[in-house]
Amino acid sequence: MLVYDPATNPLNNNEWAFPLTECIHIAAMAFSIGTIALVDLRLLGLGLTKQTAAQLARSTEIWTLAGLVGVITSGLLIFSSDPVHYLHNGPFQFKMGMLLAGIVFHYTGHRQVALSGRRGARAWLIACVSLLLWLSLVFAGIFIAFV
Amino acid sequence: MAIAQLFHWVQETGWATFIRESGLTYPVIMSLHLSSIAMFGGMILMTNLRLLGLAMTDTPAEEVIRQLRPWKAAGLAIMVTCGFLLAASKADTYYPNPWFRIKMALLGLTILHAISFRKTVYRSSEPMRSRGRARLAAGISLILWLGILSMGRWIAYYEAPKAPMADAGLQARPR
């Protein structure tokens, strides 16, 4: 039988490993959410308005994807340091739900509106939902440590 | 030392005590700090990637810099305000923390960086005239901000040599 003991995890046995993983998590979080937010601002008619939303979505997508890969990979490592604790943590459960919703939303409705160049109420609503969704993940991430 | 007394005085103010003792205020301010890192950090990244010639090459660099300037200023203002409130609420433990001191020094260097490259890159009508200089400015900026971010996380892991026993057992994971 395979039994996983978090005490054997290098993250729990090296003074630098855990904080370093957290730094990567935060930097990748800024890359992914930050680039998505630039497209959201553009959909609201703000920020980088010299580019169309479609142009901006195309020039940021690779960096968004790189950020998402980085943030999820480092997140999985952090999760592995104490899986039972996280699984029973309310903000963590909320965060995972929002992450799943965020990724699906980003690559369907959000992407469609950004690339279509549509403006108006729909684009505005999509941008607001996107901003709220991703920022709620940031809040949930912090609250994991405070419940 | 005078600075230590100043830090202690800040921690003892009513608002700093409120942040420290109220259960919800501290994590909410921390979340706002992180949210502005997400927004502001993404803008710093894209500006620097543009200066490195790695992203948004279909838009002139000066346009990217100019259009993001007010947003970066606003993000920085929120970030610094929240950071100040967080540090103030625990000023006594921040004062001797070497990671906090390095973070403040790196923040000072970003001001020096902004002044140094102001004329030739950030306020220039042709920031890409010297590609080498634009790359240098972007590289230094990325290193400084990644350093500041990392030091911010490390602050939570510093244990003062004579930490009171009661404090040490309070939290399993540093915040």
Order of helices and strands of chain A: HHHHH
| Helix proportion of chain B | over 70%
Report the mean per-residue pLDDT of chain B as an integer: 90
Characterize the biggest β-sheet of chain A: none
Summarize the largest interface: chains and residue counts.
A-B, 36 and 37 residues
The structure class of chain B reads mainly alpha
Shape of chain A: elongated
Alpha-carbon distance between the termini of chain A? 33 Å
Number of domains of chain A: 1
Intertermini distance of chain B = 28 Å
Query: Any idea what the radius of gyration of chain B is?
Result: 19 Å
Helical residues, percent of chain A:
over 70%
How many individual domains of chain B? 1
Q: What percent strand of chain B? A: under 5%
Encode the helix/strand succession of chain B as letters.
Answer: HHHHHHHHH
DSSP summary, beta strand count of chain B = 0
Radius of gyration of chain A: 17 Å
In short:
The complex is a heterodimer of chains A (147) and B (175). Chain A is an all-alpha fold.
Describe the structure.
- The complex is a heterodimer of chains A (147) and B (175).
- In chain A, 75% of the residues lie in helices and 0% in strands.
- Chain A is an all-alpha fold and 147 residues long.
- Chain A is elongated, with a radius of gyration of 17 Å.
- The two termini of chain A are 33 Å apart.
- By secondary structure, chain B is mainly α.
- Chain B has one domain (2-161).
- Chain B has helices at 2-12, 14-21, 25-51, 61-89, 91-94, 98-116, 118-122, 131-155, 165-168.
- Chain B is elongated, with a radius of gyration of 19 Å.
- The model of chain B has no long low-confidence stretch (mean pLDDT 90).
- At the A-B interface, helix 1, helix 2 and helix 5 of A face helix 3, helix 4 and helix 8 of B.
